[in-house]
Structure formats: structure tokens, C-alpha cells
Amino acid sequence: MAYTYAGHTHQKIKPLIVIETTILCIAGYLGLYIASFADSFDDFSTLQVHLSNVLIFVAFSQLSLLAVGLYELRLRESIRGVVRRILVSIGIAYFLHDGVLLNLFPSLEVNNYFIPSAAVVGIVSLSIFRFVIMENEWFGFSRKDVLIIGAGERASIIEKRMRRKADRRGINLVGFVPLVGDKFNGIQNETIINLEVQEELEKFVLENDIQEIVIACDERRDALPLQALFNFKIRGVEITDILDFIERETGQVAVNLIYPSWVIYSNGFRTTNHLRESLDYLFNAFIAVFVFVFACPFMLITAILIYLEDGRKTGASVFYKQERVGLDGRVFKIIKFRSMRPDAEKGGAQFAQKNDDRTTKIGGFLRKYRIDELPQLFNVFKGEMGFVGPRPERPQFVTEFIKQIPYYNQRHNVKPGLTGWAQLKYPYGSSSEDTIEKLKFDLYYIKHRSILFDLLILLRTVEVILFGKGR
């Protein structure tokens, strides 16, 4: 089976250069137009000099864009990185035009406001254009060709986890290459590329301009073409383990694939962000004070409504306290508004369900909009919880999960939170299978936690609350 991606690079780049040259020309003319408001051109030069300056600005800008690698299809930058390169490029063009050329040839000077105006318009317009093409993966930017080495059970995780087009944003799965030792019937609906791996793999990768190779075979010993992989690495082809690939593309750690050496050589599940650790309590306490001041009236109304619905009849408290497992396995009592009947657990501890029939009338509303979680602000003040982190589980469940689920205890490396990555990405769990899926997201959060990640989760949680998309 043959693919012919190679040789198409220049075909993709040519129209991009033409479009961006046109954008820069328009930016140059807009720069002249803006500059005309500051000072009349009549006293400076002829139309020929105006056109010369626009062309010079465009030429310097394009040379700078080429110099900083913005026309390299292998460029794997975020939009922030691309904008930085655009700023550098236009900055270089500004210096060459205004600082060098006009000093050498003063007769070319048009207007002091022309180059700054053209530079600003150029930066803004190019940044917007690059954002659009990166979001839509036009011209091959932000999209790389990926080859999977392996077509057995481990490789099938990629097929199962990344079925939708949205799951493959930024990548093109060229195909799966079976190796000796792969378990039968792993890949069902993807392209299988049958190669004599030791002899043909290197030629295939180079001919088809593969940018990343994912190692996903079931048996690595004596099966991997190590010399070819070494050569790829030297040539700049990215070599990625399946665990790291799944983590990067799906936002979860595949606990069912973890092997000891991966934990040893990765950064593990302990944070290395010491600044964040030292500021953790202050960060959470500050947000808790802000939320409490805003939410205090709603909390008072909620307490009254719970009391009126069944509290005055049964004598049950409007609050609900329950033991949960927190940081380093320490047990604490979580505080919530009571959303269930007083006898909800007369048969023993149970998982919360999405449409739980044990909830009261007001309780269903409280859960949907997360209002029942507000008293946990007091747990935050006490330092038992943070705003963001894995949701704390009950000791009865934790004891069983640690026995059944590998690496489950690692989620206690951080404080539990009112909201978390798993809560945003996965619905209420009611089984061990659901717990494993949520653990994958929890471990991803623990590995990648940062203040910016926490803020992202908080913002998305606000969206969930406002639009009633309660998990």
C-alpha cells in the first residue's frame, strides 16, 4: 500500500505565500492611508516613492517571515508561538526599513507614521489569518502525519479513543504497521500498512514525509527496528510512546497501559511546580472569599428552601457531612447542602447517579447547578480541599478501588477539589469502569496541574453551571 504525501510541501506553501504577500500589500496601503491623516503626503514625494515603500515593506516582511520559519510545514507552534514569530518578523522588517534603508537612502522617506501603521496592521492581519488557517488546518499547518507502529491490542486503544474527527484535530493517522507479537484482531476499521519493517519502514517514512511515529506494539523485544528509529530521531521525526500520545491527544492517562518503566522515566504524578505548591492555599483562599461574598445570599436562600421542603418535618439538617479521603489519604468531613432524603443511604453507601431517585425536589435543582457544593468553601478555608482537584471519594469506596484499580492511590497526591478535570470530561460514575475512566483524567490533571490549568477548569465549570450542563 503506498502513500504519496512527499513532494506536496511546496504545493501547499506557494498559495500561502501568495495570500500573505497580498495581505502585506493591503497592510502597506492601509499604512499609507492611516499615515495620511497624520500628515499630508503632498510635501513629501511622488506616487512612485509611495509604491516603492509599500513594496520594500512587503519584501522585508516576507523575507523575515521566511527567516523565522513561518513557512515550514513542520512548524509545531501554538497560535501564541506563531504570533510571537510574526511580531519578530515585522520587527525585523521595521528595523531594516526604517533603521537601515531610509538612513542609506533618505530620498525614499514618505511619512514618519507610514511604517509604524503598516507594521501594526500587518501584525494584526497576519495573526488573524494564521489563527484561521490553524483552526481549520488549511495548508497542512497544525496537522501532522502520524504513523502507528503496532496493530494489536495496545494500538487498538488509539482506534477506540480517537474515533471522531474532533479527536484527531491536528493529526492525520496515516496507518498502523503490524509487528511480530501483536495480538490478532487489534485494529478493525483503520488502514493497515503491511511492510517488511526492518527493510521497508525507513523508506516509507521518508517518502511519505511522516512527522511522528507512535510506538504502540504489544511486544517490543526484538520486534522494533531500532536502527531505523534512531535514524528517524536524528532526522527530526518525533518518536512517541503510546502512553504519551494518548495523554497528549485525549487529556487522560491510560492507566490500563501503564508499565513501571514509564512511571520511572516520566515526571510521575508528583507536581514539580514548587511555586504553585507554596501559593496553593493563598490562591484557593482568595477565590473562596470572593465566591463566598458573592454566593452568601444564594446559600441563605438554599438553606431556607431545604428546611421548608422537608427539614422542618424530619428535623434533618440542611447540611450534609460525610467522610471523604483527602491529601495523602487523610480522612476529613466534607460539607454540602443536603440534596437527598434523610434516609437515602439506609441500605448502605451508594454511588451518586445522574438521575438519582433519592434526591429531593429542590435537591435535583441544587445538583444541576452545583449549588449543593457551595458549603465546601468551608473545607477550602480549612485547607482540606482546593477549588480544583480530583473529587474526594468515601473511605469505603477508596479501600476497594485501591485493591482493584492500578495507580488509584496516586490521585491522593494532591488536595481534592470542588471541581476537576474528570468532572468536566466525564459524567457521574456508578461503577468501577466509570471510576477507571475518571481516574485517567484525574491522573492527567495531577501530572499537568498549574495555576493556568486550574483557571481553565474554573472557567469551564462556570460555563457548566450557567448553562445547567451539570455532570
From TrEMBL:
It comes from the Bacteria. It is a multi-pass membrane protein. Belongs to the bacterial sugar transferase family. Keywords: Membrane, Transferase, Transmembrane, Transmembrane helix. It is found in: Membrane. InterPro entries: Bact_transf, EPS_sugar_tfrase, Sugar_tfrase_EpsB_2. This is Sugar transferase. Gene3D superfamilies: NAD(P)-binding Rossmann-like Domain. The keyword Transferase applies. GO terms for cellular component: membrane. One of its GO terms (molecular function) is phosphotransferase activity, for other substituted phosphate groups. Residues 282-466 form the Bacterial sugar transferase domain. The chain crosses the membrane at residues 16-38, 50-70, 82-101, 113-133, 281-308.
